[in-house]
Amino acid sequence: MDRGPDWYRGDCHVHSVHSDGELTPEQLTAEALAAGLDFLATTEHNTAAAHGAWDCARKAGLHVVVGEEVTTWTGHWLALGIEPGQVVDWQYGVREDVIGRHLAEARRAGGVCVAAHPHAPYPSGDFMFPLEYFDLVEVWNGLWRSDRPWNADNEAAVAEWGRRLAVDVQATGGFQPAIGNSDAHLPGQLGTPQTVVFAPSPRTPDLLAALRSGRSWIAESAAVGLEFTAEADGRSAGVGETLVTRGATATVRVAVTGVPEATVRLHTDRGKVHHGGPATRWTTTAEESLFVRAEIRHPDGRMAALTNPIVLTP
Question: Could you tell me if 114 and 80 are in contact, meaning their C-beta atoms sit under 8 angstroms apart?
Fold first, then answer.
């Protein structure tokens, strides 16, 4: 449902019976609504077979982004927002040196390109292409190959992404945004995790533009709520935005709901710099921190939510 500019919850990596999933689009629509989602992306492996199968979702007020999981020989990637009926080629690996051509094909159609589950522990799942070729990276992948919504593969992906942030922000002032998706194949998986994105509407161009800009955070479920801001000299910024501090001290605030006994960990280009409870306040300057991002953890260390950064400039 279109609520105008708002936070929209979605799952951008979903499989149905049209590839190797077990659920029909009708069943996935029901699960998406039950999981509190506003949109999902249809991303079957190397086929457009499901692109025309989602009238049920649209009638229910669930927006559907047309996509594909491009399952190459040396890593999987998501082409989101391509044309209905379009199939991006997958029959190559890193040694063929053709990935740029296929990324360009998806982008010409208006799509964004996502490095999927870069540390997946199964054949062709380990990602061999340079991550910087892609618009986004999927740092949190769901339950399909695990009985846990958070596992070591995701921990490795977040760590790798986090290490690259400082270089990206220092070099360009920007960053490669992170997203999280369920990779749902079986009942009960959809929406764990989900990406929460601030967009003008749930239309595909608006969602993709917001995802590309990093105006998003990842939650383990719709039960998790999060506010994340930085303020300095009368100005404020939220996730994915840049705060011009004009030399003033920046006050970072995080407020979490839906995670009992949550621990908030704040990270900058200096690594982990602060931890606190579900209502956390911390101060820094642009000279001390190129950016700040938040991780929300359960008492046992499992991730409950994580954000893209707020960039700080003098």
Answer: yes
